[in-house]
Design brief:
Strand order of the largest sheet of chain A: 1-2
Number of helices of chain B: 4
Structural class of chain A: mainly alpha
Structural class of chain B: mainly alpha
Largest sheet of chain B: none
Radius of gyration of chain B: 20 Å
Shape of chain B: elongated
GO biological process, one term (chain A): ATP synthesis coupled electron transport
Strand content of chain A: under 5%
Main location (chain A): membrane
Shape of chain A: globular
Distance between the termini of chain A: 44 Å
Oligomer: heterodimer
Family (chain A): Belongs to the CPA3 antiporters (TC 2.A.63) subunit D family.
Subcellular location (chain A): Cell membrane; Membrane
Largest sheet of chain A: 2 strands, antiparallel
Strand content of chain B: under 5%
Helix content of chain B: 55-70%
Number of helices of chain A: 21
Number of domains of chain A: 1
GO molecular function (chain A): NADH dehydrogenase (ubiquinone) activity
Largest interface: A-B, 31 and 38 residues
Helix content of chain A: over 70%
Distance between the termini of chain B: 57 Å
């Protein structure tokens, strides 16, 4: 139990090494290993959530080095929740992938597990440089997975994705350099400690470093001027990968949330809440633009990508709002949107399988098999995404809107409701074209892969389940928001007793 | 020394940014490489520049900050792997898309396949 916080990182790593040993082909054994490992990951993360749900913050010191010097993994309510969310999403994706998608290229399951390792590590680490390393791990795996199976569209969008993220990594390192040079540490708890007593002449540098970090995380989470890579990359990626990528943007959101509440939060003298206005206005602008774009989408996958951007805009607004109540609502919305968006990507693949050459384009096609089942699933996912009651989207959006103050509500309410309307219009048009407008002729389509269907249903079942369990889940996210707001708890868990000045490697200061 | 170091880093960054913004994949990859060199130099200097000081605490009064050296080593390894990947990807996209333009457009005037057509 003592080693629980590192298991979500270690388990995928070991499984990946085992699975990468043979390169070509996919056999039932490897699928079984991969699905079993992901199921175990769900259990491990659920145990982790159980451990921290009471409010404890678990700190795992790697190599037993003391905190500001060694690297620590920190599992609090937020980290544990994100790790569990990743595991659930991965379970749906990997079951779906076993329906045949993993056979399109080499090494699917190994890379998939490496990506899980990177994502889990990014959620659990308590060190900013270690966060960079885990970002690179998940990015390298994602580069390969994005191009799994090959094809022109994937290579083209993959090139943009890789170049943008390489430039982003450079910016990340520059930001880390600036912050280390001016603060003297990269341990997040220690940084929080020192930023609160920063001499005034260093504040300019730290501000620059912090805002550079915001740009980097904004690129990952696809905030307005930095999102243009997302729709093409996600809509051309293989379905199980696109579904897993639903959590990748949330890694960016998580990093913004963690860094800009813990380090540059309310207690940071002179630098407090410096990201707030950027997040709020950037979130609103993302919401507005994605709302227009979703109406213009002519392909089902593209439409789902814009559903995702709407949700990112909403999440950023939730981060930009004042008060811990809106954070609780934001986290609940994050759980809902990650699972549903992932499920929709998987469903789009099921639909494409049946329609043959037409794929996911929103045009008239021949009649196809299983149209009733698929249309019911599509309606479920689209209603949840757009936020229609009685599904989870409505609960999450209503909660978020109820936490807005009057001046915030003036902006948030119309934009959020209009984006819901745009989603309904776009989804009903796409649904009626795909499922009802047919040219004459026999029904076409292949046999429905059971694995693909199970994977999709696992993720889409979040829509009703999150409504049924809204009480306990909502309490948990609310408690998470309160824990995050109280940064002293995190700092004292990592550093022991919170002292005024921690001795450390600050030799550069002389 | 600080001025020379800063100017070198600055020139590398400027060249890297300029090349990254070009329209062909080859200059973009070279630009990213230059950018990563600049970043490595910058990271190395973030603990302050110390001459004639080993990165060993306790052996003498005068020592260099060991952390940036450890960090820059990690950054170099990661940057190297990423550059290798970007080169392969650029070649793959040249082969698959028939053009070395970053957005894969075929209307490129210097594209040899266009001349044949």
């Amino acid at each position: 139990m003592q080693h629980l916080p590192i298991l979500p990182v270690l388990l995928p790593l070991v499984v990946a090494i085992v699975l990468l040993r043979k390169r070509e082909g996919v056999d039932p054994v490897r699928r079984t290993i991969s699905i079993t490992a992901t199921s175990v990951l769900v259990i491990v993360s659920a145990l982790l959530v159980g451990q921290v749900a009471g409010g404890d913050t678990l700190v795992y010191r790697l190599g037993n080095w003391q905190a500001p010097y060694g690297i620590v993994l920190v599992a609090d309510r937020l980290s544990a929740m994100m790790v569990l969310l990743t595991a659930l999403l991965a379970l749906g994706s990997v079951i779906h992938a076993s329906g045949g998608e993993d056979n399109q290229g080499s090494n699917f399951h190994g890379l998939f597990n490496l990506q899980l390792m990177g994502i889990n590590g990014a959620f659990l680490t308590g060190d900013l440089f270690n966060l960079f390393v885990f970002f690179e791990v998940l990015l390298l795996a994602s580069y390969a997975l994005l191009m799994h199976g090959g094809g022109k569209a994937r290579v083209q969008s993959g090139l943009h994705y890789v170049v943008l993220n390489l430039a982003g990594s450079s910016l990340f390192l520059i930001a880390l350099g600036v912050l280390y040079g001016s603060i003297g540490t990269l341990n997040m708890a220690d940084m929080a400690e020192r930023v609160s007593q920063l001499p005034a002449d260093r504040q300019g540098l730290v501000r620059a470093g912090a805002l550079l970090l915001l740009v980097v995380f904004g690129l990952k989470s696809a905030i307005l001027p930095l999102y243009f890579w997302l729709p093409r990359a996600y809509s051309s990626a293989p379905a199980p990968i696109a579904a897993l990528f639903a959590i990748m943007t949330k890694v960016g959101i998580y990093a913004i949330f963690r860094v800009f509440t813990l380090i540059f939060g309310e207690q940071a003298a002179g630098l407090s809440l410096l990201a707030q206005p950027w997040l709020w206005w950037g979130g609103l602008a993302t919401l507005a633009l994605a709302m227009v774009a979703i109406l213009a989408a002519r392909d089902l996958r593209m439409q789902i990508s814009y559903f995702m951007l709407i949700s990112i805009g909403t999440l950023l607004c939730g981060l930009g709002m004042e008060g811990t109540a809106s954070r609780g609502a934001m986290l609940f919305y994050m759980l809902h949107t990650t699972l549903i968006n992932g499920g929709l990507f998987l469903l789009a693949d099921l639909i494409a399988d049946q329609r043959g050459k037409v794929g996911t384009r929103i045009v008239r096609s021949r009649k196809f098999k299983y149209a009733t089942l698929l249309s019911a699933l599509y309606m479920l996912g689209a209603m949840a995404s757009a936020g229609l009651p009685p599904l989870s989207g409505a609960v999450a959006k209503a909660w978020l809107m109820s936490t807005a103050t009057l001046s915030e509500g003036l902006w948030l309410w119309p934009l959020l409701l209009l984006s819901g309307l745009a989603g309904v219009v776009a989804a009903s048009r796409a649904g009626s074209t795909i499922f009802w407008r047919h040219s004459n002729g026999e029904r076409v389509g292949e046999h429905l892969s059971r694995a693909k269907l199970i994977g999709t249903v696992v993720l889409l079942s979040a829509a009703p389940l999150l409504v049924v369990l809204a009480g306990p889940v909502g309490n948990y996210t609310q408690a998470t928001a309160e824990q995050i707001a109280n940064t002293v708890e995190y700092r004292s868990a990592v550093l022991g007793e919170v002292t005024s000045v921690t001795p450390g490697a600050s030799t550069h200061a002389d | 020394m600080e001025a020379l170091y800063a100017i070198t880093t600055g020139i590398l960054t400027a060249s890297g940014v300029y090349l990254t913004l070009r329209g062909r994949t080859f200059p973009v990859v070279v630009g990213l490489t230059l950018l990563s060199y600049a970043v490595n130099l910058f990271l190395f200097s973030m603990g302050g520049l110390t001459t004639h000081g080993a990165a060993l605490v306790g052996t003498s009064e005068h020592y260099a900050d060991p952390l940036p050296q450890a960090l820059v080593l990690t950054a170099i390894v990661i940057g190297f792997a990423m550059t290798a990947f970007a080169i392969i990807l650029a070649m793959r996209s040249r082969g698959d898309l028939g053009s070395d333009s970053v957005d894969g457009s075929r209307t490129d005037r210097e594209d040899p396949r266009e001349n044949k057509a």
